[in-house]
Recover the amino acids of this structure.
């Protein structure tokens, strides 16, 4: 009865993702508990070789096994080594590092991020990476098992769950460039049906020295040749347009 109570207590303490049969992986930190043997309780991280070093029985290769199978392996090693007659072993996950997702592209902090669960919402993963930059697209490309999925991160697809090994890539959004006599020169997203007036507003507006009557537009024409024209406030803005606000004459 004591053994059953002990195991039931451990099961309640272990998160759902650790009970779900997920495999142990390199970098995961675990706690190994042996019933009625407090001196043998060990916390260890699974090494690059897929092993953990444990008292009495030394290194045990457990990467790729479930917590249940790894517990049986360790118990058998203790029994066959004649250290304990009938050892009851339990493994709890402390830190999960083997389940990670790559976040790349137009995010604040590209890199590898651990999954707190067997899967996480794509918006949670992007938030962990510092969020999408202003120049980032509204659509993420998720690479999984060699296949691509395009996920709109601002609508119903935002509930999409990423999994261990996924790569999430935020592409560069269509942008235009504005400089000259505007408050904030730089690159800005091209919004649907955007006009030159709206583009100037995105750049913080015209400075006191500038003129909305002296606007230039540079746009790639046929065969990639850049063509410069006078621009009007009502002109439509396209991807990669360059808008130049010149000084007023008087």
């Amino acid at each position: 009865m004591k053994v059953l109570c002990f195991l039931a207590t451990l099961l309640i303490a272990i998160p759902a993702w650790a009970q779900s049969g997920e495999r142990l992986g390199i970098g995961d930190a675990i706690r190994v508990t042996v019933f009625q043997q407090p001196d043998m309780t060990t916390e260890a991280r699974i090494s690059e070789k897929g092993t953990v070093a444990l008292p009495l029985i030394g290194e045990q290769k457990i990467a790729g096994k479930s917590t249940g199978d790894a517990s049986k392996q360790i118990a058998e090693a203790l029994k066959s080594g004649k250290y304990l007659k009938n050892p009851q072993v339990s493994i709890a996950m402390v830190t999960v590092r083997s389940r990670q997702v790559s976040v790349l592209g137009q995010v604040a902090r590209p890199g590898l991020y651990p999954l707190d669960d067997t899967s996480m919402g794509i918006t949670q993963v992007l938030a962990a990476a510092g969020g999408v930059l202003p120049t980032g697209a509204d659509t993420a490309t998720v690479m999984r098992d060699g296949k691509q999925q395009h996920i709109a991160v601002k609508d119903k697809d935002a509930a999409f769950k990423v999994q261990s090994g996924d790569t999430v890539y935020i592409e560069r959004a269509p942008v235009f460039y504005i400089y000259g006599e505007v408050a904030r020169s730089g690159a800005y997203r091209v919004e649907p049906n955007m006009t030159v007036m709206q583009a100037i507003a995105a750049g913080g507006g015209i400075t006191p020295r500038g003129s909305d009557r002296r606007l230039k537009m540079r746009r790639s024409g046929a065969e990639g040749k850049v063509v410069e024209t006078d621009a009007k406030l009502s002109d439509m803005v396209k991807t990669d347009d360059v808008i130049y606000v010149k000084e007023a004459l008087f």
Remarks:
- Confidence is low (pLDDT under 50) at residues 1-20.
- The two ends are 94 Å apart (CA to CA).
- The domain at 100-172 is CATH 3.10.560.10 (Outer membrane lipoprotein wza fold like).
- The chain is about 20% helix and 40% strand.
